[in-house]
Amino acid sequence: MTRTLLFCTLLALASTPAVASSIAGASASASSAGTSASSGSTSGNDKVVLQARGAAAVFVASDGRIRGAQLEAALNLLRERDADARHASDMELAQAILAL
Predict the structure, then answer these.
(1) Domain residue limits at 94
(2) Using CA atoms, how far apart are residues 56 and 61, in angstroms rounded to an integer?
(3) Per-residue pLDDT for 21 more than 60?
(4) What is the pTM for the complete model shown?
(5) Which of 26, 33, 48, 52 is most buried when burial is the number of CB atoms within 10 A of its CB?
(6) Does 41 fall in a domain?
């Protein structure tokens, strides 16, 4: 199981540079703006995405069969704040989260 998870994580890191850079860019631009549309802070939003890395790894390793609450929250957040993320699949976003 650990070997499979490691392989999937490495595969994800290698296969999603465009989505990952888009998400990282959105995160950086949101941080430089200094505000967010919600009452929460941008750094708090970034924390939601970073904390979902474990759930994203499980999602990728299980080929999308296991979905955690942290991953769902991160996917929703990414789609709310990034136009490219709205068009990406859950798997692509999970792989991008792993690449952050």
Answers:
(1) 2-32+59-99
(2) 8
(3) no
(4) 0.60
(5) 52
(6) no
